Amino acid sequence: xxxxxxxxxxxxxxxxxxxxxxxxxxxxxxxxxxxxxxxxxxxxxxxxxxxxxxxxxxxxxxxxxxxxxxxxxxxxxxxxxxxxxxxxxxxxxxxxxxxxxxxxxxxxxxxxxxxxxxxxxxxxxxxxxxxxxxxxxxxxxxxxxxxxxxxxxxxxxxxxxxxxxxxxxxxxxxxxxxxxxxxxxxxxxxxxxxxxxxxxxxxxxxxxxxxxxxxxxxxxxxx
Length: 223
What we know:
It is globular and about 55 Å long. It has helices at about 5-10, 20-25, 45-50, 65-75, 110-120, 150-155, 175-185, 190-195, 195-205; strands at about 35-40, 55-60, 80-85, 100-105, 125-130, 160-175, 210-220. The protein is built from nine helices and seven strands. By secondary structure, it is an alpha/beta fold. A seven-stranded mixed beta sheet has the order 3-2-1-4-5-7-6, sandwiched between helices.
């Protein structure tokens, strides 16, 4: 399954959208395009793109998040964006007739496959995905993460040619165990459930003093 909001998506009050991701999209004739935002959540990416595009469709299986996205679009008086409840790993994108597909921290093989079936030659699939180095200090890569080689293989298999691929890393360094623990306090409960918390604590106790965020920024074009 694709990442849930709790696993990987930035919150509205959290980090900024990747500037590299947005800049790559702005290189396309967005005013002429209908963009499908797969796994839109509460619509953060869709709402950011709407003023630049002919139309945007945000799709997510979380009905409450879709309701929130619709409220935000109405408040912003955006008439060219709509939000639909749907499972982007199961349902096809063809009925939406997109000219481009984006996925922001909600990426999976199934999403790439459906994007490929919906897009025509020359059209763009752009996404941000977790990188294998995300939270590497916990000793357990996210099941939603990709490495550079793996994502290139996926895109080749699904009929895309990679135009841009980069890894964005943010490595926090700490002076003490206490600082390291404080930096991850918001992740503690989830990490205790999957066993990462205890491995991270041991990493700090053994002298480790970092915490890594890492994501892939990719733009590919249908061959």
